[in-house]
Structures are given as structure tokens and as C-alpha cells.
Amino acid sequence: MSKADNMLAILWLLQSGKRMTAKQLADELEIHVRTVYRCIDSLCASGAPIIADSGPNGGYRILGRFAESPLLFDMDEQKALVQASTFAREAGYPFTEALDRAIDKLKRYANEKQLGHMERHGEGISVIQPPVDDRVMSYLQILEEAAAQGRSLRMAYESAGADCPSDREFDPYGIIHWKGHWYTAGFCRYRGQPRSFRVDRIAGLSLMDRHFEKPAEFSAKQFLMGGLLPGATGESGLLTVRIRAAEQALNELCRHWMFGHAMKERKDGEATFELSGSSMRYVPYFLLPYGKALTILEPDELIGKMAEVSAGIAAHYDSMRSDHLT
């Protein structure tokens, strides 16, 4: 470990309030005792109130009030960090190895009571998330570093329905995790405008020598949501969709990523949403799983689309059944 890591580790060990000799510290950290002395000197010079007690039961200790300083974490903060790391890791956080090292340090320099507390609460929370493969993880690291440094990237991207990847130059402004997928948003020089891309569709990524300045007002999160959620960017020409259903069905519908965002009014047994006209081509597929639990009050256009889609699905399975019977 570096000297800074050793100094922080000594603070962690002493924050329990018990005395530890230089040899005990050295053995715990697997470093030379002279390194302990140098670190103690540096800590004292930095203002850490470390006291050396002489005698048979002597050793180094730290004043209690300093153990409560912002440099160290209380048990609830330790628990929160461990549990937050579970979410980050399962979501495919691109710097998982560094995250694991940080949590290992947190546990290594905790006292027995703190460690038991963290372990119990860490085991009490789980996240179910599709795994992120190594290729996507490596691209996320490149994208995040490039966004932080203002470095342009050369990107090969597999657009939906395209026969082969397209090559483009891209200025990444940030990465976003949403609904189990990672996205990046920034300026696409191929299109000459801001765009967002699914990271799992990137086929190649490399740094360029060119640098860029991110617009101060640009929000990668808001830009992505504006492209995915109808009406998020304040577009005109929205359609009013009014649905009647039992409360349980309405509750589920209002938690849906699209309808929850677009809800404008909710009253007993009825909800009103404002959706873009372009969304009508796929809204029926989101409503079909509710079956007869929903009654569409308006617009007539959506009722017609539901009937059309339902008839198409019924015809598809009727033909499938006929094939099996023959």
C-alpha cells in the first residue's frame, strides 16, 4: 500500500479507541515497524490527535472526539456504503474492482462490532439484474473517462436493423443506467447533433487526440429521458388517454415507466395520461397484458389500435394452432 493508505489504515485501527503498539500496528498491516513510526509522525504533523502512552500497557491511541470526525464513518454510514455497493456492482458499475477494494478497506479496518454489523446488513439485501458482460464494462470505463477528460471517441455502432456497424466520431457527455441498460449521451459528429446510444450495441471504441467542451447546460440524464419518454421534452400535439380500471390495475399501470411519467390526473377508478401521437404504435403492446382489466375511455384511435393488434395476435395463434392440428 502507499503511505497514504497506510496512514488511513492506522487511523481506522485506532478509531476503535483501544491502544495499539507500533508492533501490533505493523503486524496487522503487514508493514515494517519503522513504516508505522513514519506514518504516525506524518499523521501527528497533519493534526491527528494521536497520543503515545508509555509503560507495559502503553501504545498509541486516538482521542475519542477525532474518531467521530467526517474522515471516519459511523455504523449506519458503513452499512449504507456496503449496501450501495451491492446495487452498483449488480448494475454493472464500470469500476467494480476499485469499488471492491474500497469496501475491503472499509471492512479490514473496522473493529469486530462494526464488521459484524456490516456483514449482517450486507447479506440482507440482494439485487436481481441482468449481468453486464466484460465488453460492455470496458466500454463504460472508456466512456466515463473520456467524458471526464473531454476526449472525443471513434465509435462503431450497430443501429437496430442495420446490416453492419456505422463508424462515427462521438463526444461523450456522460453515461446513464436506466431500466437494466447502460446508455451514453453526447454529440454525434456523424449526425451533427446530440444523440444517445445503447452501450451494448457499441461494436468498437477508441480514444482520439481531439478534445471537446461539454455544454454547461447539457444533462445526459434529461436528454436520454427526453428521447425515451413521450412528452418529456415538452413536445406539442400530445394525445389524452383516459383509462378506467380497478385500483390495483391502475396502480400497476401508473408504475409503468411510460404511463407513470405521462400521468396528468388520477381519481377513483380512472387515470388520465398525455402521450405523443408517435407512441400509439407501441402503447397497445404495453396495455395488452392487462387484458379485460382496463377500459379505454379515450381516444377512439387507441381503441382501434388495440382491436387491430389483438386481432393480429389472435390470428397468429389461430394459424399456429392449425399447423399443430395438421
From TrEMBL:
<protein>
    <submittedName>
        <fullName>WYL domain-containing protein</fullName>
    </submittedName>
</protein>
<dbReference type="InterPro" id="IPR026881">
    <property type="entry name" value="WYL_dom"/>
</dbReference>
<dbReference type="InterPro" id="IPR013196">
    <property type="entry name" value="HTH_11"/>
</dbReference>
<dbReference type="Pfam" id="PF25583">
    <property type="entry name" value="WCX"/>
</dbReference>
<dbReference type="Pfam" id="PF13280">
    <property type="entry name" value="WYL"/>
</dbReference>
<feature type="domain" description="Helix-turn-helix type 11">
    <location>
        <begin position="8"/>
        <end position="61"/>
    </location>
</feature>
<feature type="domain" description="WCX">
    <location>
        <begin position="239"/>
        <end position="309"/>
    </location>
</feature>
<dbReference type="InterPro" id="IPR051534">
    <property type="entry name" value="CBASS_pafABC_assoc_protein"/>
</dbReference>
<dbReference type="InterPro" id="IPR057727">
    <property type="entry name" value="WCX_dom"/>
</dbReference>
<dbReference type="InterPro" id="IPR036388">
    <property type="entry name" value="WH-like_DNA-bd_sf"/>
</dbReference>
<dbReference type="InterPro" id="IPR036390">
    <property type="entry name" value="WH_DNA-bd_sf"/>
</dbReference>
<dbReference type="Pfam" id="PF08279">
    <property type="entry name" value="HTH_11"/>
</dbReference>
<feature type="domain" description="WYL">
    <location>
        <begin position="139"/>
        <end position="205"/>
    </location>
</feature>
